[in-house]
Specification:
With about 260 residues, the protein is mainly α. It contains 10 helices and no strands.
Length: about 260
């Protein structure tokens, strides 16, 4: 049985690498936008930029595979509790977050697949599933719940960084961990900051009467940072932090314990 499940490990690692690739693009363009030579991007914008590269089709198929595998791995982690989060309130909250992550990355996989089929060739056709979710999030009470979940995710990322909880799931020697620790902490705090800003923006949407049904993405969070006093410096720091999160994702692709045998 163990050997039958082991085949999934490389696919889960491809999933972490796919996440890293997306955040590499988001972080790079956030950093360049800070100096006036680029633009901020969300996940779908980053996917569009990757698909427009010289290796667009090849990258697209790899991303569909990677994002789908990552979504499946997140589902396995949640349903079978492979990381022993438990069934208390905290454990169930973490496992709920894993399911939310699975849904988000499934949406990105569907969006990328739609680009391959040529059904999403312009900015107005961002994927039926994604658009439906965006409209649902636009309702008042759901926006409030989503905002609370995003705020919880922000706090969880910071706690995970400060307490080095990520290290519990990484199989690397002490020398490698000396390099991984600062990268992981910087990346997790930066992503936590994005979640915190998104929580604020979605809560604001709910307070204003349920919003307009418009999607709120990481691009909106980065644009908000840029609009603040000393916004360029803050955006540059955020871009560097998200590049660190990309590096952390690649680290997970290499060293993360994919304990499918516990499923």
């Amino acid at each position: 049985m163990h050997q039958a499940k082991a085949w999934f490990r490389p696919f889960a690692r491809i999933g972490y690498a796919a996440r890293g690739l997306i955040y590499t693009v988001i972080g790079f363009f956030a950093a360049t936008a800070a100096i006036g030579s680029g633009e901020t991007m969300g996940s779908r914008d980053a996917l569009d930029r990757l698909l427009e590269s010289g290796f667009g089709i090849a990258v697209a198929y790899i991303l569909v595979l990677g994002l789908a595998c990552y979504a499946l791995w997140r589902t396995i982690q949640s349903v079978f509790d492979t990381d022993d989060h438990g069934t208390d309130a905290k454990g169930l909250a973490v496992r709920g977050g894993l399911i939310a992550s699975a849904i988000a990355y499934s949406t990105l996989a569907f969006y990328t697949a739609s680009r391959i089929r040529g059904t999403s060739s312009d900015s107005e056709s961002g994927g039926g599933i994604a658009d439906a979710i965006a409209g649902f999030v636009g309702t008042g009470i759901v926006s409030a719940v989503i905002a609370a979940c995003l705020a919880g995710a922000a706090v969880a990322h910071v706690i995970k960084a400060v307490r080095e909880k990520y290290a519990d799931h990484i199989e690397a020697d002490a020398a490698k961990m000396k390099v991984i620790h600062p990268i992981a902490k910087t990346g997790l705090v930066a992503r936590g900051a994005v979640f915190a800003i998104l929580a604020f923006l979605v809560a604001l949407q709910a307070w204003r009467g349920g919003g307009t049904g418009e999607d709120v993405s990481s691009k909106d969070a980065l644009d908000f940072v840029q609009s603040l006093p000393a916004g360029s410096l803050l955006l540059a720091a955020m871009g560097i932090g998200l590049l660190a999160f990309a590096a952390y994702s690649f680290t997970q692709a290499l060293y993360r314990r994919i304990n499918v045998e516990d499923a």
